[in-house]
Structures are given as structure tokens and as C-alpha cells.
Write a structure and sequence with these properties.
This protein is α+β, with helices and mostly antiparallel strands. The chain has two domains: about 1-80, Nucleic acid-binding proteins (OB fold (Dihydrolipoamide Acetyltransferase, E2P), Beta Barrel), CATH 2.40.50.140; about 110-415, Bira Bifunctional Protein, Domain 2 (BirA Bifunctional Protein, domain 2, 2-Layer Sandwich), CATH 3.30.930.10. The protein has helices spanning about 90-95, 100-105, 110-130, 170-180, 215-235, 260-265, 275-285, 290-300, 355-370, 380-385, 400-410, 440-445; strands spanning about 1-5, 10, 15-20, 25-30, 50-60, 65-75, 135, 140, 155, 160-165, 185-190, 205-210, 240, 245-250, 255, 310-315, 325, 330-335, 335-340, 345-350, 395-400. It has an eight-stranded mixed sheet with strand order 7-11-12-21-20-19-16-15, with helices on both faces. Strands 1, 2, 3, 4, 5 and 6 form a six-stranded mixed sheet that branches. Strands 8-10-9 form a three-stranded antiparallel sheet, with no helix packed on it. A hairpin with a 2-residue loop joins strand 3 and strand 4 (about 25-30). Helix 3 crosses helix 5. The chain is elongated and about 85 Å long.
Length: about 450
């Protein structure tokens, strides 16, 4: 248990101090008459010291609940001074670097991470009740795939070859659908070699699930039902406040089509290349060298901010959906949706492409594009798995970190990660240990 960053109120033969752990706080009372042998050690106590005590629950003369100590034991000494006056760490960067202080020194921080744990547990309960089986798939991949992102590369000495830290577990999970595990999910740690922002961290958590004999419409039902259930379990209401606005996670969610939204905001069809390129120039967008990436950049710049939601944006262009099945009613689009709230993507889902010849062709197109975010070679083993027959399948991925942001009302992803990625401090930048960092009383006790 932690003594809060104040050593207590002293009245000669009596000391009152708050004692706290993750379940709450209580006042302790230390009386000289009850602690005769220990009483001289009181002067060695410093704010932040960890104490264990035995005592009886009672009341002060003013009626405040108090544990009257009959035995006190110092469990650990605090040599570094805690944040002053219980205001928490003022410097945001120090909050992230010293989360071990931030958790107890900044009000509300511990509650966020307790809720995060409950959210992950709630996801498991919901999916298991739906008949899903939790599985684990490799983190080291010989070929990166399942998403579009730059990977981290590592080398395996014994095998003498490079591996990639996974950017997504998708292709392995779909192999399990081929194998007959008809409903599977994984809460996976993914790694993408990208920048850091309020929505991005190079290491993040993702829920991915796959269900045989399902499509992207079924995935919409799963997503909205799960988010509604989680909101009720965590907050007692379907309404959440995120980045200053209130949203309602009660199912069903709104649906809008990508082609319609693109046309409304840009005055042209998404496959009208001359018009889209002109629109990109008007917006000042840099041409990435691939038309379909440029087209989607235009969509992100003009449309995503309107997706306040919660809303499913459906029917994405086929060229930006290499793993999704083509919409039989509109061959220009794929059976895919992204789930948005507050202009931020929360999830992504497909009716999964299960035609091995078409999948191989799309993989070859990706490789030929020379895009640094595309795989460098065709995943032949995955294509071979499809040749054994993958049933019609729906797949869904939800960013757990972003979901926690929404359900706990945090504006940045760093506030829902216990240890977000930070630039390492050099030796000259590292804070020096000084005489002030170890109170005189602590040094005397040591």
C-alpha cells in the first residue's frame, strides 16, 4: 500500500495520513501510546513510502473512518520525491516516461488502465459467447502481409534468414478457417514501422476475428453489438464523450457508401483519374506514384472528417482491397467496410476473398507495384491454403487502443498505452540523480 505524497498531519502524539492502493484510499491514525517501540521511527517517514500496517477500523472524534495502527512496517523506501501536492506529473513527456509514477500520482490514470483490462476481458467474453475460439498465431512472419504498412525487420541467426514482425495476423487466422476452425479470434500485438501521432504507435493491439459462412454484413452486426455491450459493461451507458463530442454506441450504426461520399465531396467518381488527380492538386496532396493510393488520400482528406458516427463506410474500391471479395452487384467495389467514430477509424472488415487464382493475381500486382508498404513477394503458402478451399468467410479487425480511447474519453493513444513508444534519452539528457532526489530523512533511514 502506498502512503500518498504527503506525510500526514501531525498533532504531537498523533499522526493522520492517507493510505492508498488501486482499490481506493483510507485514513490511518498513528498514536504514540499504541506504537511505543515504533514511534521514534516516524521521523524517517517520507512522502511516497510504502507501508504495511495492522490495526483496528474505527472513527476519529469528527466521525471519519480511520484505521488505528497497532503495528507499522516499512515495506519500501521512497528515495525520489513524489510529485508535489498531489497534482501529478505536470510534464506530459515525463508522464509517459515515468508511468510508474503517473499511475498513482495523476488522478484518473489508473482508472483508465483498469478499464482497459476490463474492455479486453469483455471482448473475450462476448466472442466466446458467440462460439469463437481464441487462438495464437506467429509474431515472426517470413513474408509480411494482411495489411498495408512498412514492417520491422529482424534476423534469425539459427535459420540464417530475415523475418518481419507481424503487421497483422490476418493470413494465419484465415489458414485456420481453411483448417476447419470455423470461428476464431486473436488479440494480437502488431508492429508497424510508421510515425507516432495521437492515433498511431508503432506497437499496438488489434482484435481480429474470422467466421466461416459469414460476410461483411455479419461483421457489421458483430461490431455494433460488441461495442454496445462493452459501453454498457464499462460505463453503464451506450453514450460516450470523445474529443469534446458525445456519441451513442447503441446498435444499429449508420451506413454510408464510399463511392457516394467521394462523389458528394469531390464532384467526381473515384475512378475518374484525370478529375481525381486535379482534385488532389487542388488539395495540395503529394502524388505517391500510385493512382489508387492518391485517390484514397483524396478520400481521407475530404471525407473521413465527416464520418463522425459511429458509422460504417462500405463498398471500397477493389484496387485498395487486395484481400476482399468483389461486390457481385458492383464490380468496381469490394465487400469491405471501415468503422469510424469522431473521424477516426476504429475497425476494418471484409467479405474475404477465397478464390486462389484471383488472390494470387492481386498479390502479384502488389509485388509489381514496388510499393514499400506492399509485400516483396507473393505469399505462395497462403495461396496454396486457399486452393484447399476456404469457405465463404467474414473477417473483422478492431484497434483495441483506439477503442479504449473512445470508451475512456482519452484524446491521444499515448494515454491508453502503459508504455508508449518514446525517443530514447541520451546519457546527457537523462535526469541526474541529485541530493534533492533523496530526502535527508530517507538517507538517514538507509
Amino acid at each position: 500500500m502506498f502512503v500518498l505524497p504527503q506525510t500526514g498531519v501531525r498533532f504531537g502524539k498523533l499522526i493522520f495520513a492517507p493510505l492508498v492502493d488501486r482499490t481506493g484510499r483510507v485514513q490511518i491514525g498513528l498514536r504514540r501510546d499504541s506504537l511505543t517501540d515504533w514511534w521514534p521511527q516516524r521521523k524517517w517517514l517520507d512522502a511516497g513510502d510504502q507501508l504495511g500496517l495492522t490495526g483496528e477500523l474505527g472513527f476519529t472524534q469528527k466521525g471519519e473512518i480511520t484505521v488505528w495502527a497497532s503495528e507499522v512496517k516499512l515495506l519500501a523506501k521512497s528515495y525520489a520525491p513524489p510529485p508535489e501536492k498531489w497534482h501529478g506529473l505536470a510534464d506530459v513527456e515525463q508522464r509517459y516516461r515515468r508511468r510508474y509514477v503517473d499511475l498513482w500520482a495523476t488522478e484518473g490514470v489508473m482508472d483508465v488502465f483498469i478499464k482497459r483490462s476490463k474492455i479486453v476481458s469483455g471482448i473475450r467474453r462476448f466472442l466466446e459467447a458467440q462460439g469463437y475460439l481464441e487462438v495464437e498465431t506467429p509474431t515472426l512472419h517470413p513474408i509480411f502481409g494482411g495489411a498495408t504498412a512498412r514492417p520491422f525487420v529482424t534476423h534469425h541467426n539459427a535459420l540464417g534468414c530475415d523475418f518481419f514482425l507481424r503487421i497483422a495476423p490476418e493470413l494465419y487466422l484465415k489458414r485456420l478457417i481453411v483448417g476447419g476452425l470455423e470461428r476464431v479470434f486473436e488479440i494480437a500485438r502488431n508492429f508497424r514501422n510508421e510515425g507516432v501521432s495521437t492515433r498511431h504507435n508503432p506497437e499496438f493491439s488489434m482484435l481480429e476475428l474470422y467466421e466461416a459462412q459469414a460476410d461483411y454484413r455479419r461483421m457489421m452486426e458483430i461490431a455494433e453489438q460488441m461495442l454496445e455491450r462493452l459501453a454498457l459493461d464499462i460505463n453503464g451507458t451506450t453514450k460516450v464523450t470523445f474529443r469534446g463530442a458525445e456519441y451513442d454506441l447503441k446498435a444499429p450504426f449508420q451506413r454510408v457508401r464510399y463511392p457516394d461520399l467521394f462523389r458528394q465531396q469531390n464532384g467526381c467518381e473515384f475512378d475518374d483519374e484525370p478529375a481525381v488527380r486535379q482534385r488532389a492538386r487542388e488539395l495540395g496532396l503529394t502524388d505517391p506514384g500510385n493512382y489508387w493510393k492518391l485517390m484514397n488520400d483524396v478520400f481521407e482528406a475530404t471525407c473521413e472528417k465527416l464520418l463522425t458516427g459511429p458509422v460504417f463506410c462500405t463498398d471500397y474500391p477493389v484496387p485498395i482491397c487486395p484481400l476482399a471479395k468483389t461486390n457481385p452487384h458492383d464490380p468496381k467495389t469490394a465487400e469491405r467496410f471501415e468503422l469510424f467514430l469522431g473521424g477516426m477509424e476504429l475497425g476494418n472488415a471484409f467479405t474475404e476473398l477465397n478464390d486462389p487464382a484471383e488472390q494470387e493475381r492481386r498479390f502479384e500486382e502488389q509485388v509489381a507495384s514496388k510499393d514499400e508498404e506492399a509485400p516483396g513477394e507473393v505469399d505462395v503458402d497462403y495461396v496454396q491454403a486457399l486452393e484447399y478451399g476456404m469457405p465463404p468467410t467474414g473477417g473483422l479487425g478492431i484497434g483495441i487502443d483506439r477503442l479504449v480511447m473512445v470508451l475512456t474519453g482519452q484524446d491521444t493513444i499515448r494515454d491508453v498505452l502503459l508504455f508508449p513508444a518514446m525517443r530514447p534519452l541520451s546519457a546527457t539528457q537523462a535526469p541526474e540523480a541529485s541530493a534533492e532526489a533523496a530526502p535527508a530523512a530517507a538517507k538517514e533511514a538507509h
